[in-house]
Amino acid sequence: AQRVTQPEKLLSVFKGAPVELKCNYSYSGSPELFWYVQYSRQRLQLLLRHISRESIKGFTADLNKGETSFHLKKPFAQEEDSAMYYCALSVYSGGGADGLTFGKGTHLIIQP
Amino acid sequence: DVKVTQSSRYLVKRTGEKVFLECVQDMDHENMFWYRQDPGLGLRLIYFSYDVKMKEKGDIPEGYSVSREKKERFSLILESASTNQTSMYLCASSLRDTPAYEQYFGPGTRLTVT
After folding, report:
1. Considering only CB atoms, which residues of chain A are within 8 Å of chain B?
2. How far apart are CA B86 and CA B11, in angstroms?
3. Beta carbons of B98 and B27 less than 8 angstroms apart
4. Does B43 sit within 8 Å of A105, measured CB to CB?
5. B43 in Cβ contact with B90 (< 8 Å)
6. Beta-bridge partner residues of B21
7. Which of B35, B45, B99 sits opposite A92 (nearest CB)?
8. pLDDT digit of tens for each residue in chain A (112 aa)?
């Protein structure tokens, strides 16, 4: 079965400092990886996915199959980045929806 | 704009009560999901459905059941609520032939079982 590990429950950095939220996964095939974000009192929303290789709100994430990692990075943190971040993995069976496997989440706090 | 709504934002129930959590989506999505979100445990999949009257168990189905009688509505049922089911419950939906990353989430229902 697949698994997603986010080793840090809490990460606190100063405004303007670089941010890296770690995510490692275990799955023998070719997974699809995502980052979700939940700001305080708001609904969960998709931040970015590895397939699109896009940058959202200054965040990027590169899938490293050799290290089975999908770390989320931002060169200069902003106070509005404070939120709960979830790494997620999808194994699309093709026959129907099978949901996402989520990591336990990292609470990112940006200090002024 | 996709809208996924959940019947209650906050709910307080007593141990042993039967609890219904309702989720409705207005984008004609085939797939619907129920997750629970707990501090330190993140999000965990309870059940999902990829069509009317179809359901599949997720990672933690014990103590829960679901109902999908209409395409737009997916209900989560706690047959006999227990205190360890106190949690935030999130509903999500997506189109059939899109991978799971296209899930749209509802605002959540915070259930407290006393």
Report:
1. 6, 9, 32, 34, 43-46, 49, 51, 86, 88, 90, 92, 96-105
2. 10
3. no
4. yes
5. yes
6. B76
7. B99
8. 778 999 999 999 999 999 999 999 998 777 788 899 988 877 778 888 876 677 788 999 988 888 999 999 999 999 999 999 999 987 655 444 456 788 989 999 999 9
